[in-house]
Amino acid sequence: MADNESKKFWDDKHLEGDELSKMSQHSVFAEQSLTYFPYRAKVIDLGCGTGADSLFFLHHGCEVLATDYSQPALKELEARAKGNLNLAVKQLDLSETFPFADQAADVIYSHLSLHYFDGATTQQIFDEIHRVLKPNGVVAVLLNSFTDEEYGHGEQIEDGYFNIPDKGPKRYFSTATLKPFIKRFETIVLDYKGSDPRRNHKEDLVRFIGKKAA
Asked: Where is each Methyltransferase domain found (predicted)?
């Protein structure tokens, strides 16, 4: 999809009534990830959508910078946060260099937002995550897996990366194909036990929780 088409797709998707309803509650992955966060962590949430997980982290004492490509989604999050001073929001295109200082965050978190890119861009994203994390910082990401029913649909762009009709490019990981992208991190969790309410909580998504070396 062209940039304008992609932006409109996400603006519309985030603000659909059904989507808002499904994402009004924080995710299981947010709960699982929080157990690895340092106390009062500074968290950057990549691709936060309307921010259910960002709000969950706020309510557990974190300072959160919530980022998304969709400005309407961020406005919805700000309305829900009701002026919480520990929340900041920023519109962010994940395919570009992150506008954050080195070692700026204790945690970088992503719930189903990092599987839309070609291999070179995906590697750039994980390199940027490594740069922005503090030593001993935690990265927690949930990703689509090759067991997804859409896997193999549409035109194949790269291995595991397809142009899905009406949805655009999408990457499907296995734990093995993820490993080259995360080699700079110490692995804490890497499995297929991730779930999402939009998928009826079926456990087949790739979970990765890792740590930047001290």
From this structure: 43-137
